[in-house]
Amino acid sequence: xxxxxxxxxxxxSTHSRGRFADLLAKxxxxxxxxxxxxxxSRHSPHFSQVELKQWLRGEGVSYVFLGNELGGRxxxxxxxxxxxxxxxxxxxxxxxxxxxDRLTRGANxxxxxxxxxxxxxxxCHRCLLVARHLAEGGVRVGHILSTGHVISHDExxxxxxxxxxxxxxxxxxxxxxxxxxxxxxxxxxxxxDPDCPYCRRLEQDL
Length: 206
Hints:
Elements: E1 7-11, H1 17-26, E2 31-34, H2 49-58, E3 62-65, H3 67-70, E4 80-81, E5 84-85, H4 87-90, H5 94-106, E6 112-116, H6 125-136, E7 141-144, E8 150-152, H7 153-164, H8 197-205
Parallel strand pairs: 1-6, 1-7, 2-3, 2-6
Antiparallel strand pairs: 4-5, 7-8
């Protein structure tokens, strides 16, 4: 059921204006929070900020830009590691926290969908960063798929585990260094590079 989600997410992808409006209407969305760092689309210009804001208004849907706070490509070079956006560091910034606050407060009065460009939530920071942070805070997040179906963030995480999961009993544990703490019921496997300073730091913290 769509109604039991506090906040939704959606990707505009290459949808036509009509198809996207239908997706929003089916999910009862009446407000879009744009979380793109750059709110423009060369391939689908009707999703560029000015035009998008205008035609959404005609559909009875409000628009707010939160790309500066919740975008996936931060401006500060300190928020990148080896050229890749560091989601963990981004989530600790005051801008990100302010964006989350605006999103959750807005959800008290509106049916909000945070919007980015990718059609698959697993390919987008709206899922991997923003929705994850919301879910950890107890917010019930749903993801609108291109088909119109809405799935929970829990279902998305289960799908991600299936895609990236490794059978523990298939690991070459006979070649591993073992360190037992407590009763040993919980097992953690760490793959590390002996020449990697981050790996050494992680091993010290475990």
